[in-house]
Design goal:
The chain has 256 residues and is an all-alpha fold. It has 12 helices and no strands. It is globular, with a radius of gyration of 20 Å. 34% of the residues are buried. The N terminus and C terminus are likely disordered.
Length: 256
Amino acid sequence: MTRAVPLAPRRALREVGLVAGGLLIYFLIRGNVVDRATVAARNALDLIRLEQSLGIFWEPAMQRWVLESSFQVRLWNWVYFWLHAPTIVLVGLWLLLWHERQYVLMRNAFLASAVLGLLCYSLYPVAPPRLMEGLGFVDTMREYSTVSYQAESLRPFVNPYAALPSLHFGWAFLCAVGIWLARRDSWSVLVGILLTASMGIAIIFTANHYIVDGVAGWIVCTTGLGGALWWDRGRPLPWRRAALRHHHGAGAPGTI
């Protein structure tokens, strides 16, 4: 249900600080979890062979097509950058202030998927298409955009071999789920589909991920969401405690 009033400022600030600290830890770990270029390139070749065997190694043709239009290059660069971190922040704040129940659920889903992602990056580093020489990929974010690399230029936060899973795609999907859970109307469905599909296209057109990376990102984030739902049902979270107090107080005097 939609909250009638916004969240108390003190609680909101505490939550923002908690999430900001968690993100800082996540990016510091991701940036230092692995730096093995040779292994990452070998794993990337394994993924390419897998896609070829499945008949879905479409990334080179897809990027060649988009490179024919400077407008499309700029568009998908914009989508890749602005529909990731900025969108996560905006959706997170909106849920926090007006839909606390959905916010807590999605916060836990993001946290669980981040942990799973870090495990994957540590155990199976993968070089993105843009770093695979000789395959014809162009790093559009570096060649045609400055905003992303200005924002991500701090070395401790960057792991260039964190292609699998694509949390760019998976977290776009989680944002879409959060929007739908909060509103549950046709507009939220449309926005969610557009957000997820746009990011799915952008990760390929910018040569940052393989198709398999996107699938893995969806699996990781769906698993994280499942874990968050399990946790939600197994714990008396704040809104549930309030409902239980109200129920016991009204229907069973003297009970605790």
